[in-house]
Amino acid sequence: MAHENYYRLGVFLGMLLLMMLWEALAPARRDPVGRSWRWRTNLLLMVSGSLLMRLLAPISLVALAQVNQQQSFGLWYLFAMPYWLMVLLSVLFLDMAIYWQHRLFHRIPLLWRLHQVHHADPHIDSTSGLRFHPLEILLSYFIKLLLVFLLGVPALAVLLFEIILNASAIFNHSNIRLPALVERPLRWFIVTQQMHRIHHSQRVVETNSNYGFNLSVWDRVFGSYCAKGRKSDAQLDIGLVQYLKPEQNTGLAFLLSLPFRLVKDTTRNDKPVKR
Ligand SMILES: [Zn+2]
Ligand SMILES: [Zn+2]
Q: Which residues form the Fatty acid hydroxylase domain (predicted)?
C-alpha cells in the first residue's frame, strides 16, 4: 500500500496513452469541436477536481480502509469469510453502488446539475472519462467513504476498485469501435464504448439508460439496459440539446458555474428504457 499512488498513476497514464493512440489511429467518430479545446477543458476539470480533493478530503479511502482493518470494523467482519472473498465482494458491491450513485445523479435535480457537466461534452473520447464537475468528484468520494467505513472494505479492495474504475472510465469513453465479434461477447461482462455512447445520446430515453461504469450486469439486472440507440453508433447525436453551442460546453469557467445557472432542463427524468 506504500506505493498506492504510483500504481494508480501508472495504470491511469498507461491506459490514457494507449487509448489516445488507438483513437488517433482508428477513431470511431469525428470530433465536431476540435481536440485542443475539448482536451484542455476536460483535463483542466480533472485538475480542478484533484485540487478540491486535496483541500477538502480529510483522509484517503485506502487509509480509512486500513484503520477499519486494524479494528476489524464493518459489516463484512460479522461474517466469517476468507480474505479473498471479502475483497471480491467489496469490489462487486462498490461497482453496484457506483451504478446506483450514477442513476441518482440523473434522477435528483440538484445532483443532475453537477452531472450534466459530464454530459454536456458534444463528443466523447478518453478525456471525457475524466470530465466531472469537482463537486461531483467530492460528493462521490464521501459516498465511497461511507460505504468503505460501514462495510469494512479491505484496503486492497479499495485500491483495486479505484484503479479498475479509473481505467474502465477511460476505456469505455474512448473514441474507438471494437469489431462486433469482440464487442458483443465483451459487453456481457463490461461496459463497452458502444454501450456507453448510448448513455451520452441527446435522446432523453437513451441518456437515462446504461448507467454502468465497469460491469454491464447492473444495467441488465436493474432494467436500465439499452442495447441499441435509435440511430446507429456512428450517427448517434452526442451531448445535451440545451448546451450545444461551443461556448456552453468547452469553457472551464462556464462549466464550473454550470450547476448554478438556470437553464430549462429536458434531460433529467428517469423514464424506463423503451425496448
Ligand atoms: Zn450519466
Ligand atoms: Zn460518460
A: 88-224
Candidates 215, 180, 222; CA nearest to 196 is 215
Ligand nearest to the CA of 111: 1
Helix, strand, or coil here: 190?
strand
* Nearest-ligand number for the alpha carbon of 136: 1
How many angstroms separate the CA atoms of 104 and 63, rounded?
27
Query: Which ligand ends up closest to the CA of 126?
Result: 2
Nearest ligand to the C-alpha atom of residue 211 = 1
Domain ranges of the chain: 34-260
pLDDT at 5: 82
Cβ–Cβ < 8 Å for 162, 11? no
Q: Which ligand is nearest to the CA of 224?
A: 1
**Whose grid coordinates read 464487442?**
183
Task: Report the separation in Å between the CA atom of 106 and the middle of ligand 1, taken as the mean of its atom positions.
Answer: 6
- Is pLDDT of 249 > 90? no
Nearest to 103 by CA among 274, 275, 268, 221: 268
Say how many C-beta atoms besides its own lie within 10 A of residue 66's C-beta: 17
Identify whether the C-beta of residue 157 lies closer than 8 Å to the C-beta of residue 186.
no
Ligand 2 centroid from CA 118, angstroms: 6
Label residue 244 by pLDDT band (50, 70, 90): confident
Instruction: Tell me if 147 sits within 8 A of 191, measured CB to CB.
Output: no
pLDDT at 272: 45
Q: Partners of 238 in the beta sheet?
A: 201
Output the CA–CA distances (angstroms, integers) from residue 2 to 58, 62, 65, 87, 166, in the order listed: 18, 10, 14, 19, 19
- Residue 70 Cα to ligand 1 middle (Å): 36
